[in-house]
Amino acid sequence: MTETLTRPAATPPWGGLVDVVPVVPVVVLHDVEHAVPVAEALLAGGVPVIELTLRTPAALACVERIAAEVPDILLGVGTVVTPANARDAASAGAQFLVSPGTTDALAAAMQQTGLPHLPGAATVSEVLRLLELGYTECKLFPAEQSGGAAFLKSLGAPVPQARFCPTGGITAASAPAYLALDNVGCVGGSWLTPADAVVARDWSRITDLAAETTYLRG
């Protein structure tokens, strides 16, 4: 099937994702049984959003489990790198999509799901391309390797209409420098759900880490 890329409407349905929480938890899960407890731990810490990445064989099953059992969390799927990923994530119950980069076919597939989504970019030209398509919110990935907060600050003057969710290499220590920028609405971070805490089922630790992020965007 040929994907058709269209320019989003003047008020696209995928706007506003970068303003939901200061830190979007970027989560990798290997065990379906961890899905609901992780989502509930994030909610308990005041973070009503989760981005599950399609990096493991269990990912889509985890999406299905959270969609069915944790309706109070805004459920996103990240590492969407193919049109099939977009369709599969939507079918599993995703409420928004995030891609690390953007091709015409991938943008078209994400649009066709009707779900809010953040297309990825890493260069000025890629950001300009997304603006041409009508996107004003995007993911910067990999953020630290692409120039970090200094790079985003330098984009603010020539491209003030673009707003970002930088992800990749960001830590609890570096997040405030990003969130202080006018063109950053949120950051993506994996530190809220450390692998050792998930394996140990230390859900209270995840709740505590989540709670620490809720004050970061004044």
- Strands of the widest sheet, in order across it, are 5-4-3-2-1-9
Main sheet? 6 strands, parallel
Number of helices in the DSSP assignment: 9
What general outline do the C-alpha atoms trace? Answer: globular
The succession of helices and strands, N to C, reads EHEHEHEHEEHEHEHEHH
Estimate percent helicity: 25-40%
- Return the average pLDDT rounded to an integer: 93
Number of β-strand runs: 9
Question: Given the helix and strand composition, which structural class is it?
Answer: alpha/beta
Supply Rg.
16 Å
Distance between the termini: 46 Å
Could you list the spans in which at least 5 consecutive residues all have pLDDT below 50?
A: 7-13
The portion of residues forming beta strands comes to 15-25%
